[in-house]
Structures are given as C-alpha cells and as structure tokens.
# Entry
Amino acid sequence: MHPDDWYKPEKIDLILGRKVTELNPSTQTIRVDNGDTIHYDKLLLATGATPVKPDIAGANLPNVQTMRRWDDSDALKPFMGKRIVIVGGGYIGVEVSAGSAQDGGHPTILERSNRILGRSISPQLSEWFAGKLKKAGVAIVFNVEVDSITPSGVLTKDGRMFEA
# Structure
C-alpha cells in the first residue's frame, strides 16, 4: 500500500518474501524460512493472495489484466477514462469501475451472480452500492458468464459482446 520508505518512520518492520514456518503467540515470536526468529509486539501476518485468472479463452491477451500490485493499477490508468469491462463485482471490480466512471470512462461490470459484493455484504447494501454505481455511469450486468475475451471486448455465453 505504501512506498518502502514509509514504514520505518511509522515504526513498522516490513518483511517481504519470507515464509513463516512457526508462530508462537505465547512468546510473541515467529520463525521464518531462513531460520531467523523474530519477536513482535503486534503482528500483521499478511499472507498475500494470487488473483484468479479464469480459464477463459483470451484471458492471456495483452489487453487483459488482473489487479494485484501497484504496477497493475498503474498499467490500468491510461484506460480508466475509456470503455472497460470488469469481470466480477467484488471489491476490486467495484473500486475499478467507480474510478473509471469518475475519470469519464464507460465501465461495465459482468457479474455471474445476482448482485455485486455478494460474498461480503448484505443484499440490501449490495443493492445500495449498485444504485450508486449505476448513477455514476457504471453498467452492471448480472447473472452472466464470460465465454471468451477478444482484442476488442468480452463475449458472454449468451452471445452478447461487450466492447472494451
């Protein structure tokens, strides 16, 4: 979330690229894969995640991107004011679509369920967010599955093409 030089003044020891092999809450220590034992006062164990790249024809095209790192969001910036298609209405999809609409873009969310943020918030709150996004210019298509991705857009299994 922050540049590397941000953490020290905040009294945060940022350790990247290590695997925790042992966690001992009673002694407030962890052991990492190089054998080091590290004492902590407070511990945030951020295990990371890998974006899901769906098994969809065209998912590896150069105009298709997952969101994981700062570089990913930087690479998306030139397209935010244009026509983009976001596959999935989770937190990142909602955030990207809102940013695109704010930048004058024409974002479309393709969501395979019947609501956005469906795994994390109530149906009522999901409906509220969807209404806010729609008012901002975000198109949301529910109950739709992606068939393939082409250099010019996304084809759904029901035969619709969404230009991007």
Notes: The longest strand covers residues 20-24. Residues 123-135 form the longest helix (13 residues).
